[in-house]
Amino acid sequence: xxxxxxxxxxAVSRRMSNDVLVLLCFVxxxxxxxxxxxxxxxxxxxxxxxxxxxxxDIMSRAWQDFGIPHGTELHAHPMxxxxxxxxxxxxxxxxNIFEQVIDAVTESSVTMxxxxxxxxxxxxxxxxxxxxxxxPPEQVCFLxxxxxxxxxxxxxxxxxxxxxxxxxxxxxxxERFSMYQAYGTPGLYMQSSLDxxxxxxxxxxxHHSRMLQAVDLVTFTWTRWxxxxxxxxxxxxxxxxxxxxxxxCGKLYKPGExx
Length: 259
Description:
Blueprint: H1 2-21, E1 23-32, E2 35-44, H2 45-66, H3 76-81, H4 91-106, E3 111-117, H5 119-128, H6 137-155, E4 160-165, H7 170-183, E5 197-204, H8 210-227, H9 233-248, E6 256-258
Parallel strand pairs: 1-4, 3-6, 4-5
Antiparallel strand pairs: 1-2, 2-3
Helix pairs in contact: 2-4, 4-9, 8-9
C-alpha cells in the first residue's frame, strides 16, 4: 500500500508539473519601412499571472503618484512619444514607467523571442532564388516566431499556445499555421510541423492583456534600436539602457533578422 501511494503521488506530481509547464506565447509586432519585427514572450501560467500582477502594480503606483488611470494601456508608441492617453504625462514619468515594464519582464522567468525580416532583401532573395510562392515579410517573420516557440516547447518537453495581438490579416495567419501543421514549415532550416503548438493561433485585444502590452514594449524597443539613430543624446542613453537590459538578461532565444 505504501509503495502504491508513493507511485500515485509521483504520478500526480508529474501531472501537476506538466500542467504548470504548458507555455503561453504572447506575440506582437513592431515595424519600420524596411524592418518588420515580431516579438514573443513565453511563460507558463504561473509566471504569466505573476508578471501580470507586477505590471498591474506598476500602473497602480502610476495612478497613486501621477493620476494615470490604472486601466491605461501600456502601449509603446504613445508612451514613448507622449500621444493619446499618455499625452499629458511628463516625459520623465513616461520613460520611468516604460523602463519599469522592461525591468519586470527581464527579471521574470520568461523566454523572449525577437525576429525581423528585411522586406527589400526578402523580395530580392525570393526573385533571385525563383521561389514559387512569395510570402509577405510579416508572414515570414511570424513563421520564425512559431518555429522558435516550437523549439523551446520541444526542449522543455511540453506544449505551447499562441496568443497574438489582434490584426486584420489574422485569418491568413491561422490558415498558414494549419498548412504548416499539415505539411511542415517551408525550407530546411528549423523545419517542423509545429506539433508542440496546440489548437490554432489565437488573437486578443492588447488593451485587455498586460502580457501583450509587455511584449509590445520589448518589441518596440528592439525595432527602434535597429532602425532609428537618436538625435537627442538623452534619448539615446535611454534606448541604450533599455536594449542592454533586454540583451543582457540572458533570456533571449535566437534573436536576429533574415535574410
